[in-house]
Amino acid sequence: MRDLSRIFKAYDVRGVVPSEFDAEVARATGAAFVRLLGADRIVTAHDMRESSVPLAAAFAEGATSQGADVVAAGLGSTDLLYFAAGSLDLPGAMFTASHNPARYNGMKLCRSGAAPIGQQTGLAEIRALIEAGIPEYTGRPGTVTTRDLRDDYARHLRSLVDLTGIRPLKVVVDAGNGMAGLTVPAVLDGLPLTIIPMYFELDGSFPNHEANPIEPANLRDLQAAVRAEGADIGLAFDGDADRCFVVDERGEIVSPSVITALVAERELRREPGATIIHNVIVSRAVPELVAERGGVPVRTRVGHSFIKAEMARTGAVFGGEHSGHFYFRDFWRADSGMLAALHVLAALGGQQGPLSGLLGGYARYAASGEINSEVADAELEMSKVAKAYAGRASDVDHLDGLTVSLPDGSWFNLRPSNTEPLLRLNVEGRDDASMCRLRDEILVSIRGGRETF
């Protein structure tokens, strides 16, 4: 058996195929998954990577060996798997490595109703079961049946956002050769939209660019196409299509914090006084706007398990992260890039102005974006930065790493990566000049010398 400590991450299982993650691991995980949950029926889906079909099949073998029946949904996005787990009320497994390069693959696991499984909520127990050796099951083995859920998924998403009466829009969509190439046509068909597709061919080798829209370099083709086509909006999805990034009619990248604010406002109009979740690195404009619109902003740690747990605790209607993950109570508190895209299209199509004008009021501050620095000792570097700002800060908290607010309204968050020897820095200021000064000051401290940032 492979070294599971290398591939069982904070929120999922992910590794290089086959040296770290192979059919043997998938089969054992399927068996342990069923054992842990006591499940008699589960659902699976997989992305377009070449290794996804055999890994999903091996997982199903493990699950059926423990007596569970498997509903195999086949090709789908991660949010399609969440739809399946929610609508069928079954535990689920999605085979994808999301935005990672082609040599990777992985599994995202959830309980019935799309409740997440991470290290603290079952993943550690699954790993322990595998390492201890799964007891032999002597009952009837389960069966595998296939079921195409794409149309049901599309109908459900369309039922959650009112798109009746929107004006015609020209929309460029970059699927990055990922699963949005399958799901976008299913969801957007029949709307008054002229779709200009980019890289819709399902290809897990990612021949055009990485399917990771958080990296600006991967949005350049979309930006150029929006300008060339005179489009109203551009949409970019990651490999498993659970994240969505937006480009406006000028070809400018829209911050996911701005999309969080837009969707939050729409949800608050529908449900006044509702709770909205945001993580520690989302723009301060988000909680400000939520409060101004009569909602209740609740701040939480970065990561889907924390967002979903807080949504369950508070009954929040919506949650947003700066990484482009958007969570909806009415979608089993799961994240869906496609559902966020529908909200943006509904907002844009419901008025006559350009997207940049519609979103102008949500972008109140200058942000650095997430900057990673490789360090030998993350905790030591964070401690040094904390001491340096101790006398200057108006507020300091440690909800997720180190967050320091300064009297001029600027702030930063510095937190260690869960999986790599990195510190992740996010800075926001009242304007570009104040943001850049603070950003460069911190990076010089962390990296030990002046660099070009």
Automatic annotation (TrEMBL):
SUPFAM superfamilies: Phosphoglucomutase, C-terminal domain, Phosphoglucomutase, first 3 domains. The keyword Magnesium applies. Keywords: Isomerase, Magnesium, Metal-binding, Phosphoprotein. Pfam families: PGM_PMM_I (PF02878), PGM_PMM_II (PF02879), PGM_PMM_III (PF02880), PGM_PMM_IV (PF00408). Residues 6-132, 151-251, 259-363 form the Alpha-D-phosphohexomutase alpha/beta/alpha domain. Gene3D superfamilies: Alpha-D-Glucose-1,6-Bisphosphate, subunit A, domain 3, Alpha-D-phosphohexomutase, C-terminal domain. It comes from the Bacteria. GO terms for molecular function: intramolecular phosphotransferase activity; metal ion binding. Belongs to the phosphohexose mutase family. This is Phosphomannomutase/phosphoglucomutase. It comes from Parafrankia colletiae.
